[in-house]
Amino acid sequence: MEILIVGAGIAGLSTSIALSHALKNVASCQPLKIIVLESASALAEIGAGVQMTPQAIKNFFAWGMKDDLLSSSAIPTSMNVRHGPSGDIIGKIPIGDLEQDYQAPYLVVHRAVLHSILHSHALKAGVEVRTNSRVTEYGFETATVTLADGTTRTADLIIAADGINSLARKQFLGPDDPGALPTGWAAFRMICSADAIKADASVAPLLEGYGSNLWIDHNVSCMTYLIKDSTMLNIVLSHRDDVETQDWTPEYHKTYVDGLFKEFDPRVKKLIDMAVPKIVNYPVYAVPPLKKWIHDSGRFVLLGDATHAMAFYLSMGVSLAVDDAASLGEALRLALSEPDVVQTKEGKYARMKKALHVFEQVRIPRASSIQAASLHAGGILHMPPGPDRELRDEGLRHCDQYWPVEPACEDERRDFERVRSCMYGIADKRTRDWCYGYDSADAIRGVWRSQ
Ligand SMILES: *[C@@H]1O[C@H](CO)[C@@H](O)[C@H](O)[C@H]1NC(C)=O
């Protein structure tokens, strides 16, 4: 069995590890060869911290990455949600306690560090990672790829995890490819030295519990957390995506950001002043829900950001790709280890087709509901003053419990739903259960049995 994975980002490497684990004892897949094709000449990840949620971390742990991950990441004690102008804490989301409920912690890890851990575990699992291998064309029917140098390669299965601007998606969906679309939000990002913050008594206390703070107000917010072995504070300033910043000088970026946050807690302004002088604006794009992720041949599947890139207000973007990987592994394991698995290629492809169908049936609705919840959370975070915002803040004050309490009778259901609709994403315990209590393999098995 040969599987080609296109893209050596977090999604592609996670998938290679998931499949190695899922298929290693499946007789009909032996010998198992998994090759990851990366277009770049070297593996490198840029970017800052990524937030990883418990249900994804649970998979990483199951794949043997526990020690490496824990020794190079941070578990914030709580995320302090603060009123933007005053800086007063509205609620403390108990991030550090999540392991009790979900059997794995919520972690913050530098993207490059996570990437290198994944790379070494992929190699350890026997995966071959090839750089300088840019795919220019896909043969969906025959599981063939053509590389930039003109060579072609045919496998049993092709998995494209080639990111938000996916070429595979473009060729697969043709005119039906919606592309990545603006979400209406953007973020100015910058980093600040933790030592500099520690040396200033007015802001030093903000680093307690790994510095996870979130100041919120109408249309703007400031999120901070420590990265790079706690040597740097990552600062993410969300705002409406209504300015074109391409031609801005660094000075003008600063002037604009100062204007946006002029009413904020003076400590936020101080952090911005102390940050390394480079401020970059990133409009936030999302891929709208796609009609299909798999080809009818049963030999091509698209996953990761290529299918569901989304706004970051639920911190689920990267974790969702890990769920994809675990789900695909379980679907293929079930299909290919059935006792009567047919030994001909055609027989196996028919099984794979069934596996991919189950995968798609589980993942499309799951990913699109998480995407919608993420965008909703962005809206809630940046609400204007008013009664809805008071409901949100009441929810933030109760974020360690199921809030609002279950309605006692049907008549109260509407009020209950109204309050729920104003709750902020991960501050809502029911949303946390829905996001982090999710077991990818279980969801696949449930649909598998019903087929
Ligand atoms: C908030 O954003 C909306 C949508 O872009 C805009 O219409 C409104 O004027 C903004 N309000 C403030 C106070 O920034």
TrEMBL record:
| Family statement drawn from the similarity comment of this UniProt entry | Belongs to the paxM FAD-dependent monooxygenase family.
Q: Which UniProt keywords apply?
A: FAD, Flavoprotein, Monooxygenase, Oxidoreductase
The identity of this protein, by name, is: FAD-binding domain-containing protein
Q: In which pathway does it act?
A: Secondary metabolite biosynthesis
Q: Which InterPro entries match?
A: FAD-bd, FAD-dep_Monooxygenase_BioMet, FAD/NAD-bd_sf
Which GO MF term does the entry hold, naming one?
FAD binding
User: Carries keyword Oxidoreductase?
Assistant: yes
Pfam families reported in the protein's UniProt record: FAD_binding_3
Q: Which residues form the FAD-binding domain?
A: 2-171
Source species, domain of life: Eukaryota
